Amino acid sequence: MHPAVGKFARACGWPLISGHWRRSRHFNAAALDRLAAAIAESETHHPGELLVVLETHLPDHVPDGVTRALEVFGRQRVWDTPERTGMLLYIALGNRCIELIADRGIDVPDATWDGVCRKIQEGFRRGDYLGTLETGIDTIEGELKAALPVADGADAAADPNRLPDRPVFI
């Protein structure tokens, strides 16, 4: 897209409109329940905590998606897990912005997270929002399971859940 077209679209409020449309069309209560179940199940295999945050569009005061994701990471207290194993999947629906932010206790290369974000974007372009997010959560879970192995005799499911499993809309 030409930069002038993008500026015009933002000035007309297109990300806001398309973000609200995508939210109402693809993220009803049943879809959120399915995503919550996928996240809850994934967290039984490792000590990581995944929070999915959906926003209709990037706020005007934010220059880009990474800046907004870092802001949300702090405001939602994703960093506040005992072993610094919190993870944020931030999605701005109207801007088609997807970011993964991992806390310091998760040792996975940034290129891996970039690949997960690209796959989610590709699925969204095809119009498969729910299935793509479920696949993305499975991929994130696989990476967290490899990076954060459960100690012998420990039970990851017994660890208290510190972040909500249900996706959060802001």
UniProtKB/TrEMBL annotation:
This protein's name? TPM domain-containing protein
State the species of origin: Pigmentiphaga litoralis
Which InterPro entries does the entry mention? TPM_dom
Describe the location of the TPM domain by residue ranges.
27-141
Mind telling me which Pfam families this protein's record contains? TPM_phosphatase
